[in-house]
Amino acid sequence: MSGSFDILIVGIGGQGTILASNILGEACLLEGRHVKGAETHGMAQRGGSVESHIRIDGLYGPLIPPGKADLLISFDLLEALRYSHYLKKDGKMVVNRHLVLPTSVYMQKLAVPAEDEIIAALKEHDLCLIDADKIAAEAGSPLSQNVVMLGAASLSMPLKSESLLTAVRHLVPKKTIEINVKAFESGRESGGTF
Amino acid sequence: MGRKYILGNEAIAHACLESGVNFVSGYPGTPSSEVIDTLRVQPNPSYYVEWSVNEKVALENALAAAWCGIRALCTMKHVGLNVAADPLMTSAYTGVTGGLVILSADDPFAHSSQNEQDSRCYAHFARVPCLDPATLQEAHDMIPEAFRMSEEFGIPVIFRPTTRICHSKGDVELGEPLAVHREGEFHKNPRNYVVIPAHTRVLHKMLNEKQPAIRKRLVERGFNHYVIRGKMAIIASGIGASYVQEILPEGVSFLKIGAYPIDEEWLGDFVREHERVLVIEELAPEVEEIVRQVAGNIPVFGKKNGYTPFEGELSSPLVADIMVRAGFMNRNPFKGIDPVQNLPPRPPILCAGCLHRSAFYAIKKVFKEAIYPSDIGCYTLGLQLGVVDTTICMGASITVASGMSHAGEQRDIVCTIGDSTFLHTGIQGLVNAVYNGANITVVILDNRITAMTGHQPNPNSGVTACGVESPQVSLDAICRACGVDFVESVDPYDITGMVTVLQEVKKRKGVKVIIAKQMCVISARRSGVKRGRYMVNPDICTGCGTCVRFGCPAIEFADEHARINDLCSGCSVCVQLCPTGAIVREAKK
What we know:
- By secondary structure, chain A is α/β, with parallel strands linked by helices.
- Chain A is built from 8 helices and 6 strands; from the N terminus they run βαβββαβααβαααα.
- Chain A has one domain (5-192): Pyruvate-ferredoxin oxidoreductase, PFOR, domain III (Pyruvate-ferredoxin Oxidoreductase, domain 3), CATH 3.40.920.
- Chain A has helices spanning 17-30, 77-82, 103-107, 115-122, 132-139, 145-153, 161-171, 177-192, and strands at residues 5-12, 35-39, 49-56, 69-74, 87-96, 126-130.
- By secondary structure, chain B is α/β, with parallel strands linked by helices.
- Chain B is built from 22 helices and 22 strands.
């Protein structure tokens, strides 16, 4: 059995899960550690539910088995619940307190899960809820929500905060480095208050 | 170069640079597209790159390059190899002088495909070697070997990564790009390159004679290797080998297949050292069939006796389950946890402001009871809107439509096809439909880009793969040249205009073509097109739900009113649909 630290990042196509996974991978490289991952590309990306698997110190397969993730980072409440079975028993969940209802709900008149119901279900796990929208706006751009989430989750990762920050600097567009560094740091602070 | 955290396809592309590739062609297809997408944006490339119009065209171009003695890479997804199968089969006979690597990316579980076919079967069928990597590093390291082997044996080599290689990421040790430029030169040799019967009979024999040496070389190269650790053995191939290695119990022998054809003698020596053998591979039983041939009385566990699935993709928990059932492991270390049930699904959906949604809306409005054959592209998602009745393969919208027309179907038949798909294999169907007098309406959904696979340019885009300007083909002129009398271009954002043209078409017999032109909303955004957003005036909105039924992800519904969220791209189609005029331009903040 491999002794990897497994992180699953989930969200909706277009929310920036791939950049988030790139930052984690880069941070692993900076620390000289192996890393494996897998992600959703192609048609499935178009506004659909997406997942990025990252296995720090992973040596073999790229996929995290259900029940084995050490950390689940979700950019959406509903997606957190959809993938919650990937989390291991004492795993940590860092979730953006935001719900985008799938268009299928309106088109097919499906039952709409209420926000507090979802949160109540998520509370069965070690949950940290983050208002990424607000923190990102304060940092200077709503587009930095993915980095806010990484910052908040960074407290539960076996990676140094400096490595993650260096990776953020390497990977975000040059003009947005300052905003994203601030987003990471504010995220990290709010992640610590829960 | 050192170690990088990189996408599988990027690692493969980089390995091509390290191999001194001279010529690259392909047609986009998930999960293969990022290989050329990486190669086409390198600064000052020392090689030629093209997006071809289809896979057959791509392979014939690459084959010619390899006949001229230069190294050629041709990429496609697995089903693209069906289109390229004609040149593939005979290129094995003629062989090559420069290395030819055909990358055919398989998609177990059909994440983004119409089937789960296995490219290893094509390699077997064509009698060409096939490399099947288990990890990203191996995918990277196999590419230079693939070019070398192709040149050593004078034979095309199929490289078959799967989705979990192409779209995996990991730390990969990269080498330095090789900047050796080879100039292609064709040496005439009709006995080799003109496959008339007298020549091809000889070439076929030569192909067969190459096989034993190829099998030996694949073992020598270490692609296929084993370690004996007990009386039970697991034989695994491709990414399946990675899943096995994650959980391989002590005392169980392990044989990894990374390349085909398999040396049967070598395999037999291994199998005979064991009392029971389990074969783990995704999709077709390519390895298992050979194991069974050499195993004699030794029990073999695999697909043929129901231990492993023929379909879908493997995973460590699934492999562990198989190992428990076959008696290779006592307990599955992965405790299954059930997902939360009854959550509303979030399937992929056409973007807010997508031209396809408005085109489909207009079609459905005019042709209520029609049959809607469609094709392969983002617009296949029109299934959710009830305007896609069939898709089978690239280009099969027009042909299915004409077939139904001749079969006696009395309802209107309106088929949809994208611009790239039309140029791929749609034109032949249109010529055929006109020639044989079909009674159909063809709507070409023209967004001037191959969108679904990641916005690759095509001959309708006006630029090449490397961004060099090129003449834009005229879809209108092509259709007219095929003999279509009625060809009309419309803007699908103008619902009234498109409905008017569709109503006109409905009255006519024969083959009619409507070209619905509008930029892909993603490429429009990237190229800086800004249209103001819209909002719903809640005082006017009656909550009738007309806009919500349009299915745009920018339109939500809560508290008896519609609401437009920040996904709005400003296409203004919902404004035209709202019966009360409640949708207005968003006030500037």
